[in-house]
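Objective 1.3, modelling of assemblies. Example input:
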Amino acid sequence: MSSLSEEQQIDRLTRLLDVSRQLSATLELDSLLQLIIEVASELTFSESCLILLYDPQTKSLEFIASPGVRSKEIKTIRVPIEGSIAGAVFKKGSPLIVQNAHSDPRLFRGVDQFIQHTTKSILAVPMMIQDRTIGVIELVNKKDGNNFSKEDQTTLSILASHAAVAIQNTNLLVTLKKANEELKALDRLKSDFIAIASHELRTPLGIVLGHATYLEDILEDREGREQAEIIIQHGERLKNIIEDLGNIDTFQSGKSRLRKSSIDIRKLIQEVVQEYQEMAETKNISISIDNPQGELKTTGDKEKLHIAFGNILKNALIYTNDRGKIHIKTNRVGNFIETSIIDNGIGIPESDLEKIFERFYQVESHLTRRYGGMGLGLSIAKDMVMLHEGKIWVESVLGKGSKFTVLLPIKIE
Ligand code: ADP
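Predicted structure (tokens):
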């Protein structure tokens, strides 16, 4: 039979429900545990309530919440697993009511001595996460001198499960924060490395290219000039890679600024095509521009947009087989200028479409690649387009070709 009247039971359940709502709205662990011990004592008419957490390092239980003025000091006490009621509950993973705690040999007397208090009765329940016990929650001494009842045990078990969830959430949050900080530190390291590497490589490479060009000019024999030309070609490739690295560094560090001017996007496209004409001719790829007449102007950084379109066109040339076709369309769509670069090249697998704009991402693994590159071109293009508050996306069919589209807002400043 229940020791509580029906009215008292309803009261208790209503209060528990109330507290559950309050608990799910509180994120701060200490105030949450404090609320749990206050409510547990109030609902069960107990003198106090204590929450103990298992510390795997010391293999003992430590107080993480307790009422009263000495709560700070009590946190320094370690309750052993062997030789304490809380320890017995922790080990067995099941609740325990000890009505006559003072004469029970399992009572750990360290706490009573420390806070000058006499424990007469204890109700202790385990705090569980799934089937793992993480600690114990205890009620000490009934105020009305009665024994702890089954209802008290149920009430405390409900509150113990709230406490366990709160502790687990906090632990997860701490782990997540730590992982996040580590990631940020790694990212900073990567940025620093990129900044230093691109800066330090630039000067010696400039000297190598300068001397190779000089040699190409002064050498009389054809073979010697060809050798110098090879050095220049590969030096230029290296220069492009270093420039790419520098570009991502300036964007990442927020140093990237727009040098704005009025740009005719159609004219810009023609200039970009001009730049890659030689590469197209070498591969026998035709580049056609749809409707090249008529200005389509916006305000932006010409150099940065040149890089963006250049990287997309360069890819179209790289990833299209000899004698392929590239088609470029630029149109006004509402308040935007939409440019599409369409190739009939090798295409991109659907599962890679989202990822190709990430830094260093390449569809083929670096080890088996046939095409070279570093996986930076598209991420740079995306950065440049984003700086202009634009959008970039791709549609592609494997083996048939790809269509990259850039949408830039029309801004007249
Ligand atoms: P990469 O230096 O490798 O070209 P990008 O960032 O420019 O780096 O491109 C990322 C990857 O996207 C490329 O490695 C390639 O697999 C794929 N890709 C980009 N453009 C095309 C295209 N037009 N056709 C097919 N695949 C492409």
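Residues 43 and 58 are 33 Å apart (CA to CA).
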